[in-house]
Amino acid sequence: MQNKKTTNLVLLALFAAIIFILAFTPIGYLQLGVIKATIIHIPVIVGSILLGPKKGAVLGFLFGLTSLISNTFTPVLMSFAFSPLIPVFGTDKGSPMALFICFLPRIMVGIVPYYVYQLLDKLFHSKWKILTFTVSGILGSLTNTLLVMNGIYFIFKDSYAAARSIPLETVYSAVLAIIFGNGIPEAIVAGIVTSALCKALMSNKQIRDMIS
């Protein structure tokens, strides 16, 4: 039991370190002008599958924290949707609702993959592990994209339209364009990398016994 707790804490610290290393190097948040693409959700997803939803939620919170810091200090056009310290487009003050978008989707990224993995693992009776890990990674990534982009639509619809100089009635089409243009490729990458990392980590007996 003590070895299991120690392994859990070591892995939690490792994934937390990876999140911060990615966040504060150019590869963590890719500047796309309008919004930032990211790969930081991947260690959160892997951590969720291996460590469970509670520790996954902690990693998701850290992901949200790095997003808050990144959007505050190196803002792009839509950073007001992720940081209350950035004025909402067309106003002189930020919105506390930005914290909702910044943190809730990222915390859910640390929860959803665990339950997807557990469900698929039971359905397939521990067979097809690669497929199970891949689907868990894809759905974990889509959790982030769908919650973030729909959150922006419902909370900052008017400001989004003004910021991008588009008609109000076309805002959701623009949101869908980002979901399909950025979110789907991100999800595919997350699925592939999650599968590879989980397979490699589970080759370690301590880790395998921990989540079995």
Automatic annotation (TrEMBL):
One Gene Ontology molecular-function label: transmembrane transporter activity
Domain of life: Bacteria
Signal peptide (residue range): none
Residue stretches spanning the membrane: 9-27, 33-51, 58-82, 94-116, 128-156, 176-202
Keywords: Membrane, Transmembrane, Transmembrane helix
Annotated InterPro entries: ECF_trnsprt_substrate-spec
Name used for this protein in its record: ECF transporter S component
Organism: Candidatus Galacturonatibacter soehngenii
UniProt lineage: Bacteria, Bacillati, Bacillota, Clostridia, Lachnospirales
